[in-house]
Amino acid sequence: MWEGRGLWVWLLFLCAALGGVSAVMQKAHRRHLSLHRHRERGKEGQVLHRSKRGWVWNQFFVIEEYTGPDPVLVGRLHSDVDSGDGNIKYILSGEGAGTIFVIDDKTGNIHATKTLDREEQAQYTLTAQAVARDTNKPLEPPSEFIVKVQDINDNPPEFLHGPYYARVPEMSNVGTSVITVTASDADDPTYGNSARLVYSILQGQPYFSVEPQTGVIRTALPNMDREARQEYDVVIQAKDMGGHMGGLSGITEVKITLTDVNDNPPKFPQSVYNMAISEDKVPGEEVGRLKAKDLDLGENGLVEYRFVEGDGMGVLEISKDSETQEAVIKLKRTVDYETKKTYTVKVEASNPHVDSRFMAWGPYKDTATVKVNVEDADEPPVFMLPSYTFEVDENAPSGTPVGRVHAMDTDTSNNPVRYMIPRYTDLGQFFTITPEDGFIKTTQPLDRENQAWHNISVSATEIGGHHQDAKVRVNIKVKDVNDNAPEFATNNEVLVCENVTPGKLFSANQTPFTVSAIDKDEMAHQQHFHFSLAPEAAKNHNFSLKDNRDSTASVYVTRKGFNRMTQSIYMLPIEINDNGSPPMSSTNTLTIRVCSCDSKDTILSCNVEPFVLPAGLSTGALIAILACIVILLAIVVLFVALRRQKKEPLIVFEEEDIRENIITYDDEGGGEEDTEAFDIATLQNPDGANGFLPRKDIKPELQFPLRPGLRPVANSVDVDDFIKTRISDADNDPTAPPYDSIQIYGYEGRGSIAGSLSSLESVTTDSDLDYDYLQSWGPRFRKLADLYGTKDADDNS
């Protein structure tokens, strides 16, 4: 209530001040106008006086945010020439003239018609002028003045960058600066206390404080621990009017986070850890894990582990899992339950990054004891050596001893061991082993040149228990024996010119030609080869051989010149001996070819050329003759191919097929029982009586005659046997076609219940026999049934 009364007192005071200023301005303006008229009169009467400059006013004031019902009177313009008769007209122009500011053209009163806001526009520049109402002729020169908007406290402070986020290390000293917050006030900072701000903390005590004038937030408590509380929400207030009553205020939030420092040492949750490892584990196996807890974060919470002391430092090793920060204890070397059952080590955990400010708080490390118990396990047998190497002579007989491997069970039970050679390591099955004692022997003679080393494995399995087994590598070297004869190192033939002179033989590149040898046996430093001509070539008069005594030999020509037309190739047998034990020898043939050379002994040709060409025929004529021969051969081949494409019967008869015609005989026989009038075999197969029938579908390379004894006799009693015999002949005949064919036989057998089936009788007899019963005889007589049934139907029609 008092605050409102004080505001009205200020307003009344401002109005009175503005009224006095307005009156002074009017008086000064009248004095200015009167002086102006005095200067005019002096000019007319030529009386000159020194002009006295009057006070020239230049600004009015108006309070912002006025919300009264009537327009606010800003000021009044009045001229000395205005006698009050209304002949003078006042004109206002400039910023806001006619819209915000209006003037009474008779009285000169200026009013503000709208509410003004200093924060939008602090002042307005206007121009006033007095003119004659009837002629609009200026009576006074234009006068410019400023209307200033008077500020009031109508804008609260604002934090333009809030909310704020800040970080400060934990355990910071009291008064450590955290962050500076700044608020702004839109009011006029040059007038009164409207823009004078004071900061205060509303939330966040007693941990933090704020400086009232600067807005700097500082820590207010010592030893703030991040592990106890990490984040704080602080509320800051900014108030204008110097923080006094009636001032406006604004607030902002500040989230403060305590950052970590290394103020906590690592700590093991327990002082003793018990672990176990089986004796059958290999080095590198994990024994167990333990972890020291550190409440700090990041690199401040990193922990390093190491062994400090203990009898297990030789068999155990420690490392760190970088992801879980755990200490990992692994087996460094194998352990034996029968030798030592327990190991103890002390593990130390420490921080690699220590803050010197907190060194006085204590050592940043901790220790724990780890006890590792070795567990008994059923271990496989152990070989006395990690690997074995033996030697055996080449070509040694089967059953030759090679060597012995030995393994034993190290468990307390000491079970016996059984040996074997896995077949996949000895695919050739060259060796065998005695299961009880591990003696290895050969199963066949070995060839060093085929395989010099045999690498096998031997498995030892304990008898009883869990049948644990172990394997060992056995390397067997085959010792060399001189069992291979020497031979030529290369088999290249030697070229010699026809016009060669006696002496050493040269190769094609004009270098002396030498014979060398190789031996598949193991070559020793003292091994040499001796060369000589074979006995059958010792008396030849063309070439000779000289042993160079360095495992090579030189070939010499002993005659002058050769004639390659007479003989172009010479074979020179050479005997090679080695000095092995026992010595081995072989005879190898050196091929010497005679070639045509020029005067410089350059080889021109080594091929045999014809002696005489046909007289009168040139090379072009010979080529033409050969071309004609090739064309004729092509025509013949084409003709044969076209002939083969014609479709012809598979069986070629000289005249006709007996199965398609009726053979008529002029003499009358005694019936079917009379077999002496004519040969019944002619009726069965007249073309086949003299031999094998030719086939057109294939061309056999070898003709197989019918097997004797399988052809039935003409007067066979059983026709079924006769048919089966013919089927068997067709199945076994390689020239038979791959399809079925109908074979017609004229002989039906003796005593057939069907009577005569001869087509001769059917033609000459007008009997009305019913042949429907042939349908029931099966597929062999179906063709006859179809033929006779059709004939009967045609006769009836």
Automatic annotation (TrEMBL):
Keyword Plastid annotated: no
Gene3D superfamilies linked: Cadherins, TCF3-CBD (Catenin binding domain)
GO-annotated molecular function: beta-catenin binding; cadherin binding; calcium ion binding
Family annotation (InterPro entries): Cadherin (IPR039808), Cadherin-like_dom (IPR002126), Cadherin-like_sf (IPR015919), Cadherin_CS (IPR020894), Cadherin_Y-type_LIR (IPR000233), Catenin-bd_sf (IPR027397)
Signal peptide range in chain numbering: 1-23
TM ranges: 621-642
UniProt cross-references to SMART domains, sorted A to Z: CA
Sequence ranges assigned to domain Cadherin in this UniProt record: 79-159, 160-268, 269-383, 384-488, 488-612
Biological process annotations from GO: adherens junction organization; calcium-dependent cell-cell adhesion via plasma membrane cell adhesion molecules; cell migration; cell morphogenesis; cell-cell adhesion mediated by cadherin; cell-cell junction assembly; homophilic cell adhesion via plasma membrane adhesion molecules; morphogenesis of an epithelium
Keywords: Calcium, Cell adhesion, Cell junction, Cell membrane, Glycoprotein, Membrane, Metal-binding, Repeat, Signal, Transmembrane, Transmembrane helix
Highest taxon of the lineage: Eukaryota
Subcellular location: Cell junction, Adherens junction; Cell membrane
Membrane topology annotation: Single-pass type I membrane protein
Cited PROSITE patterns: CADHERIN_1, CADHERIN_2
Cellular component terms (Gene Ontology): adherens junction; catenin complex
Primary location: other
Record's keyword annotation contains Nucleus: no
Purpose of the protein: Cadherins are calcium-dependent cell adhesion proteins.
PANTHER family: CADHERIN-11 (PTHR24027:SF85), CADHERIN-23 (PTHR24027)
The protein's name: Cadherin domain-containing protein
Organism: Denticeps clupeoides
